[in-house]
Amino acid sequence: MSHENLQRSEAAERSALISTTSYDVSLDVRQAADPAVPGYTSRSVITFTAVPGTGTFLDFIGSSVHSVILNGKSLPVGDVVDGARIMLDNLRAENQVTVTGTALYSRSGEGMHRFVDPADGQCYLYTQYEPADARRVFANFEQPDLKATYTFHVMAPAEWNVASNGAEVNRTLLTSDPATARWDFAPTLPMSTYITGILAGPYFRAEDRWQATLDDGARLDVPLALYCRASMADSFDTGHLFGLTKKGLDFFNRLFDYPYPWGKYDQAFVPEYNLGAMENPGLVTFTESYVFTSRATDAQYQARANTLMHEMAHMWFGDLVTMQWWDDLWLKESFADYMGTLGVDRATDWDTAWVNFANKRKAWAYVQDQLPTTHPIVADIPDLEAAKQNFDGITYAKGASVLKQLVAYVGFDSFIAGSREYFRKHAYGNTSLADLLAALDAASGRELSGWARRWLQTSGISTLSLDISSTDGSSKDPGLQGGATGDDGLLGQVTIVQEAVDPVTGREELRPHRLRVGSYDFDADGALVRTGTIETDVAGAWTELPQLAGKPRPALLLVNDDDLTYAKVRLDPASLATVRSSLDRITDPMARALCWTALWNSARDGESPASLYVDAVTAFAPAETGIGVLLNILENAATAVERYTPAGARGRVRASFLTAAAGQLDHAAPGSDQQLAWARTVGTLSRHDGALLPRLRGLLEGSSPVEGLAVDADLRWHLWHALAANGQASAAELDAELARDTTASGRAGHATAMASRPDRDVKVAAWDAAVHGTGLSNQLLTATISGFITASPDMLEPYVEPYFDCLRAVWDARSIEIASRIVRGLYPAAQDLADGVEPKDHPVVRRTDAWLDANRDAPHALRRIIIEQRSHLLRALTAQAAVVPHRPPNIAALG
User: Fold this and answer.
1) Using CB atoms within 10 A of its CB, is residue 179 exposed (0-12), middle (13-18) or buried (19+)?
2) Model pLDDT for residues 738-795, shown as the tens digit of each residue
3) Which one is catalytic: 272, 311, 385, 642?
4) At CA 54, angle to CA 143 and CA 134, rounded to 5?
5) 701 carries an active-site annotation
6) CA–CA separation, 322 and 314 (whole Å)
7) What is d(CA 476, CA 491) in angstroms, rounded to the nearest whole number?
8) Distance between CA 348 and CA 243 in Å, rounded?
9) What is the DSSP string of 193-248?
10) Pairing, β 528-538 against β 513-522
11) What is the pTM for the complete model shown?
């Protein structure tokens, strides 16, 4: 449909002409449960001011517009509707427009998503709009800086629960249709279109209240509610969730010194959700994956708590104060990502929040920041398609990491003081980078524009390493550089070396870092403990550490100890040797996590063979006490085996790691998180190795149980995936498993397993369903693609050309969410590097280059995905070229 991709320039022109005051929106979803009814009636009454005599447009993406009434005059629909826009001319100083149309239910998670629960046949609705899908539900001015108040009315089946941003003020049974009720909700405070929301269906609802007296004596009383599908209610740990919610509200109300402004606080866990969560004021939505119907690890519970705190922080950063345009998306997402971790760290009983942030969240940022499509935290977002693609590791995790560095730079108290002033000055308004910097400048007494330019307006990662001279001054001896001492075992000159090139501009960008360098040595018990730390400012290419000169050489020198800054760290040779031999002896969880990250970056960058990373995981993962770190390094190890290890060595590396994983499954404490983590790893590795398939079947059938291991629904589908991928699970068996697990997650597990079977007809059917069919929802599409790509390169090779041939058609015909999943998921990434072939000359790399060259006019968002997938493939092929003979660790010695 034309005019869907709003340009930044168009948004600026529109906001210069008009200001929105209020919306009154009525939606009629009483027939939603009938799958034959594709849409519903939507009516918007909008009041707004304008420059008299000018014209502008409304946004609406629906099946039809029935009427447009502007200032009491009915406009000819055929003349004013232009694709996704409704043209309004000859405006007055004060205006009212009423638009009635038919909006469509979606299966893509965009707009009003309709889901039918396979467990009981019940129909559920929820909305998801960011960045610009409110126009799929009601006509509006769809851009973040045109804030207004909203009053919603919903007609729905009387037995349903219905919620919106505002509190319910009235519920009336229709006299003409007693099976239908009309819900009326209180007007909201001013907000942007993309954070409005509706929830409707036979949801299970739990209620509570949060009450508190703040430091200034203000008394707050906030109604709380939790929602999930009725069929999941038995697994819904509402007491735990309400407890976290109250702790978060206590923490953020006091931290921000600005009372929670949105009245009630509802949280809904909804099916087939495209995101982790969304910060709709008064009605936060979460993926229902956070309702744990199967055994979950403590790391999963902590991740859920982090998301809950992230969304709560948005009530201030993003909802109360909103970015002017999507260039400054970081103003809400970076802050919420930082505050989510801070909230878990300070308001809950978990003490590993920042460790998991360093090991998992920042790893996402490091990956994103090394792609050719990386961008500054303050990005250039010319249109909505670009905005959709920028919900990425830069905007979230890098931004949060840089904020952590800012806190180290200006001090926590100054950072919070500046934030409080920012809220007070810009409440219910829109801001840009300059507004935040002004508040932080005033609070900290520092001029931060230079800091912001280097950190927020450049791209790429700084790499930090140590240059260590010998005590005789021979710092440039290549044999000594990086880890030298004199014969007396003392350090010579120690220098932090910073390397940083902006990949977008090609210029050197040496950033300021406030960081620590930790010294670690073995104690009397053989543990590797911190014996000293130095805090310093790094401002250029070389920063000397005179405090270390002449000191005994510690076993490990760790740059960026405590993870204060955002940078890749290269261990010096002596420290690297210590880590590769004694990583499990490091007692500090953060230091251990940082060393794991250094090893992983070395493998990803092709500086060391991936098999060495797998060896380290095999040797040291059994002793890893942090379950979040363990899950991450096991996932990394599986990637190292399947993507970064050369084909000729892969079978040996996989077999040794699989043997070790199976051994740890047997030796882990019964019922522990570690036991579950190793069980999942055995399943993942077994997709490409049949050695343990009889054991997996024994687990499924109960004939060879593992003490304490709950083989519940999630783990069962994980194991079925492995059996199916090896041709050891029939369609009848998988159908029988689905019959015993009629849940939405079970349906997705079934789709993945079915598409995993190594049968050419199965792959053809999965390809056709994903690429040419329209019957798969967002969740089932992803599940089908996941199964399809679980195959040998030979089986997938026939789809390389069809993939490139279909790209433009898929992008033009499907919504951006669905098209992105297809384009990203089906890229032929499972490739191996042949002997004597340079990575850049691999046939798929060359075919990708040919497509990019021939499609320079393709939409920017589509090209971005292809460029990123090419980069991931090239990195994998480069890593495969970093080969040394694999020497499997002594598995028996690890038991």
Assistant:
1) exposed
2) 999 999 999 999 999 999 999 999 999 999 999 999 999 999 999 999 999 999 999 9
3) 311
4) 20
5) no
6) 10
7) 14
8) 10
9) GGG--EEEES-EEEEEEEEEE-TTS-EEEEEEEEEE-GGGGGG--HHHHHHHHHHH
10) antiparallel
11) 0.94
